[in-house]
């Protein structure tokens, strides 16, 4: 897997992280994951790279961030964290 910024343009944190990255001179390919979903293999690789459990990068229904405990979901500047911005799993 090459470096990639997973982006949700409807998420203010994702937009801010992308802007910050570009202002810092970092250019990465941007993938709007809601339009181009990740494969199961890609998701497995991300979880492996982060060293977390899959549930740690999933937003719970009605929650205010990722399910990963203290500080989860509030980390701007970690592109993969944009995975949890604004996406809800149907009940």
Q: Which class of secondary structure composition applies to the elements?
A: alpha+beta
> Termini distance?
31 Å
In this structure, how is the largest beta sheet organized?
A: 2 strands, parallel
Mean pLDDT value: 75
Structure description:
This protein has 91 residues and is an alpha+beta fold. It has one domain. The protein contains 2 helices and 2 strands; from the N terminus they run βαβα. The chain has a two-stranded parallel sheet with strand order 1-2. The longest helix is centred in the first third of the chain and has 12 residues, at 12-23. The model is unreliable at 67-84 and 86-91 (pLDDT under 50).
Strand and helix map with partners:
Layout: E1 5-7, H1 12-23, E2 30-32, H2 40-50
Parallel strand pairs: 1-2
Distinctive features:
alpha+beta, 91 residues, 25% helix, disordered C terminus
Q: Briefly, what is this?
A:
With 91 residues, this protein is α+β, with helices and mostly antiparallel strands.
